[in-house]
Design a protein that fits this description.
Elements (H helix, E strand, L loop, with lengths): L20 H9 L15 E4 L2 E4 L15 H10 L3 H35 L7 E2 L21 E8 L8 H18 L8 E3 L5 E3 L17 E6 L15 H16 L3 E9 L11 H7 L16 H8 L5
C-alpha cells in the first residue's frame, strides 16, 4: 500500500521464520518431547511448540490466621456477622448468663442451709424448742415420788442419725408418729442422739410412757437406733453418747430432779424385752450407778417408794 507521499510504510515487526520444505521435514522427523507437567505463573496462554495452549490456573488461597487479642477477635466476628446472627448470639449469651447465675445462687443457698442446719444451737443440750417440738400437755410426777431414784434406758429401734439436723428431724418424726398413732407425746423424758447430743423429750419431773408400771416414778431415756448385736448394721453406742448421758444425769442431781444415789437400769431389767439391746445394755453395766442387784424388778412405784424412799441405795 502506498502512502500519499510515495513512501512505503514500514511493516510491523513479526516473529516469522522462513523455512523451506527440507527444513520442515527435518523438524517434523524429530520426535516431540513428552511433557507431563508445566508450572506456569501469571500467564493464561503459552506457546508449546506449534500450538497455543490455554492454561487453567488452580489457585489455592490459604488464609493466614494471625493471633489477635480476644476483644479484637470478637469484634471482627461481630462486625462480619448479620443482624440476625448478632441477635441470636446475644440471646444465647443472655440465657447462658442467667443459667450460670441461677446455678451459683442455688449452690450458695444450699451450702448455707446445710451449714446452718447442722450447726446446733447448743453443744449438747437440745431443748424442745430447739428441735421444734409440737406443744403437748403432759402429766407431772407426783410430789411424793420426787426426787426420782430410777432411770430406765430403752432404745428407739429407729433410723440412726449422725448430725444435729438429722437427729432433730428424727426426733420430730418420732413425736409425730406417737401423736398420730398413740395420741400422746414422745414417750421418753430425754432422747440420746447418735451425734452425742441430748434431746429433751417430756423433760424433768414429767411422767413418761416408756416402761409400763414405772413411768410415774422414773426418768426414761431413749437412745436413737437399734443396739441389738444379733442383727446386722446395729447401732453401736459411743463414748460421747455415754459421757453426755452422765452429764445430763449429773445436771438432774444438781437441780434436784434425781436423787444423788439414783440407780440406772435397762428396760430388760424390769420387763421381758430385749431393749435396750445387748450393745447398749453392756455399756450401761459400766455405770457407777447401775443397779446390779435388780432390786426394782416386780415392784410398782408405790412399793419402790415405800421400800427405798428413805433408804440409801
Amino acid at each position: 500500500m502506498w502512502a500519499a507521499n510515495g513512501v512505503v510504510p514500514a511493516e510491523p515487526a513479526r516473529d516469522v521464520a522462513l523455512m523451506d520444505e527440507r527444513t520442515v521435514s527435518a523438524i517434523a522427523a524429530v520426535p516431540a518431547p513428552h511433557i507431563d507437567t508445566i508450572n506456569v505463573t501469571q500467564s493464561s496462554k503459552v506457546h508449546v511448540g506449534t500450538k497455543v495452549v490455554s492454561i487453567t490456573q488452580n489457585v489455592h488461597n490459604k488464609e493466614m490466621l494471625k493471633e489477635l487479642p480476644l476483644p479484637l477477635y470478637l469484634w471482627n466476628i461481630i462486625k462480619n456477622s448479620s443482624r440476625t446472627e448478632r441477635l441470636s448470639c446475644a440471646a444465647a449469651l443472655t440465657a447462658l448468663s442467667v443459667c450460670i447465675a441461677l446455678i451459683v445462687y442455688f449452690s450458695v443457698q444450699t451450702s448455707k442451709t446445710s451449714t446452718t442446719g447442722d450447726k446446733p444451737p447448743h453443744e449438747w443440750n437440745i431443748t424442745r424448742a430447739m428441735w421444734l417440738a409440737k406443744p403437748h400437755t403432759n402429766s407431772p410426777i407426783a410430789d411424793a415420788l420426787r426426787p426420782v431414784m430410777l432411770v430406765v434406758v430403752q432404745h428407739t429401734v429407729s433410723q440412726q442419725c449422725t448430725v444435729f439436723s438429722q437427729c432433730a428431724a428424727e426426733v420430730r418424726k418420732m413425736q409425730g408418729n406417737f401423736l398420730q398413732d398413740k395420741k400422746y407425746d414422745i414417750p421418753y423424758n430425754f432422747i440420746i442422739g447418735n451425734d452425742g447430743r441430748v434431746y429433751e423429750g417430756r423433760g424433768w419431773n414429767i411422767e413418761g410412757a416408756h416402761t409400763y408400771g414405772y413411768n410415774r416414778c422414773s426418768v426414761g431415756l431413749g437412745f436413737i437406733g437399734d443396739y441389738r448385736e444379733e442383727i446386722p448394721n446395729l447401732a453401736r453406742v459411743t463414748e460421747l453418747q455415754l459421757n453426755r448421758t452422765r452429764m445430763m444425769l449429773d445436771a438432774g442431781v444438781t437441780f434436784g430432779y434425781l436423787r444423788p444415789d439414783y440407780q440406772i437400769v435397762g428396760a430388760r431389767d424390769l420387763q421381758d424385752t430385749v431393749s435396750p439391746g445387748s450393745n447398749l445394755y453392756n455399756a450401761l453395766k459400766q455405770f457407777d450407778n447401775y443397779d446390779h442387784q435388780k432390786r426394782f424388778a416386780g415392784l410398782n412405784c408405790e412399793q419402790i417408794q415405800e421400800k427405798y424412799g428413805s433408804v440409801e441405795l
